[in-house]
Design goal:
InterPro entries: Papain-like_cys_pep_sf, Peptidase_C19_UCH, Ub_carboxyl-term_hydrolase, USP, USP_CS. The chain is mainly beta. 5% of the residues lie in helices and 46% in strands. A five-stranded antiparallel β-sheet has the order 4-3-2-1-5, with no helix packed on it. The two termini are 28 Å apart.
Length: 78
């Protein structure tokens, strides 16, 4: 348990993470539908995955919605 900031090494306070993927779920406990958003590390664009349909998103503004189920982050290297 961290009691105060003195328990955390200074280098860990500067750690940054980037969102790289989101898994979404719509529906209920017994049935539903999953979709996903993922950021392509080569071109920097976000893509939507819905069954066999993949499309590029115009912006990253709508990546995290009320249907977000799992968020995936990657630690920045610099």
């Amino acid at each position: 348990i961290v009691k105060d900031n003195t328990d955390i090494p200074e280098k860990n306070l500067q750690t940054k993470y980037d969102l790289v993927a989101v898994s979404n779920h719509t529906g209920g406990l017994t049935s539903g539908h999953y979709t996903a958003y993922s950021k392509n590390p080569q071109d920097g664009n976000w893509y939507s995955f819905d069954d066999d349909v993949v499309r590029q998103l115009n912006s990253d503004n709508n990546v995290v919605t009320k249907n977000a189920y799992i968020l995936v982050y990657v630690q920045r290297t610099s």
